[in-house]
Amino acid sequence: MFSDWPSELVPQQGWGDEAAISAFKDAIPWTVGRDFVAGTAKHLAGSLGLTKPDPPTKSKIIHDKQLQVLMPALGHGLSFPLSEIDILRDCVNVYCEWLSALLPNPKSSVPSPILNDPNHYARIIINHFYYLFVPRGAQGPDVINRQAVLCHRVLRTLQNIAQNSPYLSEDTWQTLLMFLLHINSALLSPPTVKVPDESEGAPSSTLSLNFTGDVAEDAGEQLCERVLSVLFETWLLACARCFPPPPLWNALRESCQRWRHRAGLIEQWNRINFALTRKLICFMYGSSFPEISISEDDLNIIPTNMSKDCIAQVWYRILHIIGNPVDLSRHTVISKTPAFLKYAISSALVIEPSQHPCLQMLPSIFLTAMKGISGLVDAFLGVPNTSLDNLNQKGRQISPSSVSLSSDNKDDGARLLANGRPKCNSILHLFGPWLFEAALINCNLQASPGSQHKSDAGGGASSGSRRPVSGFGGEITKKTSDASASGDHSERLTNLMPQHFQGGRAEALGALCRIFCSKKTGEEILPVYLARFYIALHQGLREADAAILSPHESSQPPTQRYSTKTGMCSETAASVLVNGVDLFRLDLQGVVSLVPSVLGVLECVLPEGELSTPLQLPVTLLRRAATHILLSILPLPLHFQGLQVKEIGNNSGERLALSHLRPQLVNLLTNALQVETDPSNTQMLLGGLLFCVQDAALCEVMDSISQHNFSTDRDHNIMSSGASDTVSSHGDYNSLLDETCEALPEGGLGQMSATSFPSSSTTTTTHATMLTTTDGEATPILEDSDSAHALFVRSIYLVCHRLISSWKSDVNVSLAGLELLSGLARLSIAEQDGLECKRAVKWLCDYIASQCYRPPRAHSKDLHSTIVAAFHCASVWLVAHPYLLQDKECLATVLEVVELGISGSKSQVKSSDAPRLKHEKELKPASMRVRDAAEALLSCVLSQVGTFPSVCGAESLSSLLDEMTLLRHCNTWGGSDQLTRDSAAQHFRYFVAQNSIMLALLEQPLGNHQVCTLPDPQPTVTALIRGPFGRVAWTMQLRHLPRHKSSAKLYTVNPGRPLPMNDVGIKHNVKPKYFPDSVERIPLCKADKSIPSLESVIMNEEKSTLEHEKLLQILDHQIAFEENVQRKVERETSEYPDVETECVAPSLCHEFQTARLLLSHFGFLSLDALQESVESAVPSLVALDSSMAGFARDLEILDNTNNRTVDTAHVFYVQAGQTAPLDILSNVVSCSSVHPHFMEFLNGLGWTVNVHQHPGWTGHVSTAFSVTPQSQEGTIDSNHGGSGFSGKSHVLYWSDALSEMAFVVPAPSQGLTTCHPSSSGNINTVGLALDSYEKVASGGGGGGSGSERSDSLPPCDADVEGSSSISSHASQTSYGQGSENRSRKFGRQTSAVACSDHKVYIVWLESFDDCYTFPALELLPETVTGLESSSWKDKEAMVYIIFIHALTNGLFRIRLQGQNAKLNMAGPLVDGQVVSRRVLGTLVRQTALNMCRRRRLESDSYQPPHVRRKLRIQEMVQRYRYEMNEPEFYTHLFTSPLC
């Protein structure tokens, strides 16, 4: 920059008023001069008032001539040896006091000539001060400390004058700066010590310097930091008040380059650079840009009156003041100074200057310089908390951009880089030449990083373009060998090797990685920078801390060439891994050429259990960085199957196919899983493993499709993985890429043996993979080891074994492993072996058993969460593979573990044990949550396995029939009356069996074809059975014969009568006697006569006589009537037979009490069933009163309490730079405003359903679980960009036997907020019978419903009705055992919270940086589902966000946000992962589902869906139960219902 300007730094011997002082000391002898100087200094110091209590006296020096005599003497005194410390102190005190003439309030002891012309005399005094700082040679530490004290006094005085003097002239400023330069040059030169001349008894010259090489007593080391800080701080003051001319800047640059062997110079350089950069960034990028954190003292370094232009000028000049920082790695360059040369000439040992012992500090100094540049790079990138303190820590600094690698980073939404940061090219223009040159140290390349960028600094960054990158060659080796043979003194000589500078090189590589990883979406980086960057990374990754690879190594295959020492990772490679985690997640042109280099380092880091890391870098952090990079390159081989990559630095022309690296990547992934111990790293690897299996499976499906010519457009819709019921009407791949699609025809894929995939470590090579089995034999895996089937089997073995052995104690890792197994269960893989699936279920059951049998102290909520998740995983496997239950052994295993979960023990632990019956075991489940999960698995086995999806479709597990639908088909309903739910319920009899199953019995025959065609309908009962797991409808008939024999007549019209029998025998008319004949002969006694006779009583009263006569008349009339009838009957029956009285067949009975028959046949009408028991306060059978108010409403609430979990994900599309919610919502109106693959991605999430005709979950309670007769808005605009799935007419839906999920794309004008007032107001004001608590509080909304539902029902209050009823009865009525519920330690609480206050966002980003500014909270009103609690608006919402960014290479970058809970990191997607287009929809859906499942597992108040339904039934029993005893119940049973 100033190479054309002459330097004002004159030789040291010509500085300090040498002529006047030499004339003074040459005129008189040494002793006389000493006495004169001592007396003069003592006299002048005495008048200063510093040592005496008296105030200072006014100076008597009034003429300039007096000062011309005194000042040379004082200057001569400042050059005295340190033994004359008193004289030196007096001279310093006098001069320091006289300099107060430059201050606004000078001291009274200052002579008047100095007051009259302070600048002139100040320049003389400053010149004389130089002699005080000149080193005196070898002295003891105490003597050096005395000199340092005086030097500090002078420096404080000069700094005070520079800060506070208003009178400093330009010449004085220049003199002050030159003085500071000279004293720094005198002190910071290579170690020098003054030696007295014993022949004369006095120093021959104060400036005669002899080099002894003794650095232990160096005054420069003690004063280095102080003199440098004063120099730079004063220089900054001069820049603000009197800007130094170019010669002075050139002098500063040349001086600093001579001091570069001093560590203090680089530290002060970093300090000043940080302070200036802080000011520069503040006015360049605004106050919102992250500031550099510096100390309070450094905040005042920059003068407040310094202009912005001045700051920019000074910043650039100071930045280049030490020349090229990379020269610090070249000791031959650093030692090319006059001081080093003088040392070499005068030294007793004839050695070269480059062998000076002080150069041993160069590696540390170089590292400090690179840390400073790295810190400046972070400052311009806007990395938060960039601080100078981080540079001074021991060990190499961990990059601030590596914060994302930390597993305990709670603020996952915080920005790592500033949004307004400069472009990569701009930062590379500033620091690129230095960083590239430093990164290529010790490489056989001719680096020219400065050739493309002109610089004004002659010795600055561009100077590196004229020299080789490496300063170490054969001559250096020769010199070091010569020096090592020079005797004992060789230990003091420098012996620097290239690997000593690997720390600084690693820091430079880390800074380069951070610069390139800061690339914004759509930003272009110059190709020359990319090329140099790839070369630097290639060189940093290809070697350990040893020297350059030999030519033999360069010719080896890539997989061998890049393999480093086992268990070791070089410092440069570690820096690249930690700082370059985003390298393959950006659209960097040609970055795939680095895959072979990176893969070799990953093989060194990931598969090793005991890894040695450089310096202070944690092993876990290094492995996490390596895992991130591995997940980024996993999709590349299948995505670029035909791509040939030419290796960097390989001139042979050989190319490597990326597809050949896939077996190596897969083996690396599985081997890393076997040795990984960190929970976060393990979960990331599990996510990558599931991606590999799914990607391979779908890729093979597409290849088979192509081979069988199923389609002509392979790229039509490869993202749509769909779901189990996805059906394409356009010939796309939705149904073929579905997770549950049918297996493809056989052929092409080999089947692997189960013993070929153990969990032991493996060794990877290029052409073959050796797996060590448990027997110790090496089994080679053939070329199809990376096929979907092989990966499927290998994953099952690895994950199941690790789950049982080492992962069972960590809840997060266990959940991640179970999620992976669930994902594998849903895959459809050609030639899938049923034996492997059976083993997977067996191992799952073993895992559940091992967790349940753990000691009591190990049981906790987290342990039970893993058991619950394992039961869910087993359900998924059985539903996906129903043939497993055909195996008796598998069925027995599943039922045993179900028994274990429900009862807490197995009835038969060993096959040889006698089984214990149910009533012999004590019911002690691990927890109620575990019992509920086991019951859910049992219900799934009995009702869903092999039958899902049902005839109602995947949208509903329950029957769609209800009371109103059945009555409409009943032959007794005329259809004229207005049928309501209340009136329909009156036709049914309602009973509750076992306090958990509600029976709605209809005793009227249905108007079906059987009743119409058969003249004698059978006794028929129609039952709606509502249980914990759904609702089913059954029609039962009482038949004495099978249906195929029912058409035959079982009777005749007139069967006739039997023939008469005339011989009827003898008829004897005998009247019975009631008393013996002797009773009349017994005489009466007085007691017999105590009761008066009837006649006596009648005759005594006239009224009685009349009544008696009337009664006798009635009796006589009745006797006559009966006799007449008897005679008539005898007359009619006298002749036999009589045609008029002939017997005929009775008429058929059309009315049956079928409800009584049904209950009786099932054994519910016994006396024991109708009585309360000790175990339960509710009898086994209870009748409900359907006529009570609110019964129909509660019945509908029960129907709408779903038997599956329901979740909702809202999808948003964000164009580049958008932050306003309305703009974001408007993007999906038209397909022209969204990415071409966005609609394809939406179709991969689920299938389209009409909310008005959909019986399942729709994303909002107002339209969920209801089917309207007429279709409303049944079509979608074909040009929409996703707004057609806003929920008004259609949504995207996915379900399996256990879960439902709706995907809603909110639109600006047709969103849910316009349809439902509750979106912007109170959630309780939704005009529905199902409020936020009542409606699917279990995390599931509702099951199947009737064919017609009302969309507007009377509102209800959740807080009053819902919580009071459920919470009051849950602990008392659940399972009918109060004591059992009271012993619940780790189960859910009785709170009615539905765990629905979390949101899942799926956000498609055009620019990845927009993930930091996404308005998640502002969009909450658009995501209301009606399931939220009443206090949802008052607390912070839990929002999980899945960001998707489409890369230009066709892959997709994922970012996850919001997973800060205890059960974090729901998979299979991992934050920062790169996935392919074919599996994007499937993985996003699975991740969203797993996020919601983990949230439910973490909630203490969550209740499974079947428990919620069971509690609903028990609540209705408490409300509507008939309080009757047994006779009253039987009487009620024989009473016909309302017709």
Word description of this protein:
- This protein is α+β, with helices and mostly antiparallel strands and 1539 residues long.
- 41% of the residues lie in helices and 6% in strands.
- The protein has 49 helices and 18 strands.
- An 8-stranded mixed sheet has the order 12-13-14-11-15-16-17-18.
- The chain is elongated, with a radius of gyration of 49 Å.
- The relative contact order is 0.05.
- Mean pLDDT is 76; it is low at 10-14, 192-216, 394-403, 407-411, 446-492, 544-565, 709-783 and 1310-1393.
Summary, kept brief:
With 1539 residues, the protein is an alpha+beta fold. The protein is built from 49 helices and 18 strands. A hairpin with an 8-residue loop joins strand 1 and strand 2.
How would you describe this structure in keywords?
1539 residues, alpha+beta, eight-stranded mixed beta sheet, 49 helices, 18 strands, 41% helix, 6% strand
Q: What structural class is derived from the secondary structure elements?
A: alpha+beta
Helical region count? Answer: 49
Termini distance? Answer: 106 Å
**Helical percentage:** 40-55%
Instruction: Tell me the radius of gyration.
Output: 49 Å
Q: What does the overall shape look like?
A: elongated
Mean pLDDT, rounded to whole units? Answer: 76
Strand content: 5-15%
Biggest pleated-sheet summary: 8 strands, mixed
Low-confidence stretches: 10-14, 192-216, 394-403, 407-411, 446-492, 544-565, 709-783, 1310-1393
Tell me the layout of helices and strands.
Blueprint: H1 18-27, H2 30-46, H3 64-77, H4 85-98, H5 112-116, H6 118-133, H7 141-164, H8 170-188, H9 219-241, H10 246-258, H11 263-285, H12 296-299, H13 308-319, H14 331-334, H15 338-346, H16 362-381, H17 424-439, H18 474-484, H19 502-517, H20 527-541, H21 551-554, H22 558-561, H23 571-579, H24 595-605, H25 619-633, H26 636-639, E1 644-646, E2 655-657, H27 662-675, H28 679-707, E3 762-764, E4 769-772, E5 778-781, H29 788-807, H30 811-825, H31 834-852, H32 861-880, H33 888-903, H34 928-943, H35 963-968, H36 981-985, E6 989-993, E7 997-1002, H37 1009-1013, E8 1020-1027, E9 1030-1037, H38 1094-1100, H39 1102-1132, H40 1154-1161, E10 1181-1184, H41 1191-1199, E11 1205-1214, H42 1221-1226, H43 1238-1245, E12 1247-1250, E13 1290-1295, E14 1299-1304, H44 1312-1315, H45 1358-1373, H46 1378-1382, E15 1398-1405, E16 1438-1446, E17 1452-1457, E18 1474-1475, H47 1480-1498, H48 1505-1520, H49 1526-1533
Parallel strand pairs: 11-14, 11-15, 15-16
Antiparallel strand pairs: 1-2, 3-4, 4-5, 6-7, 6-10, 7-8, 8-9, 12-13, 13-14, 16-17, 17-18
Helix pairs in contact: 1-3, 2-3, 2-4, 3-6, 4-6, 4-7, 6-8, 7-9, 8-9, 8-10, 9-11, 11-13, 11-16, 16-17, 16-19, 17-19, 17-20, 19-20, 19-23, 23-25, 24-25, 25-28, 27-28, 27-29, 28-29, 28-30, 29-30, 29-31, 30-32, 31-32, 31-33, 32-34, 33-34, 38-39, 41-48, 43-47, 45-48
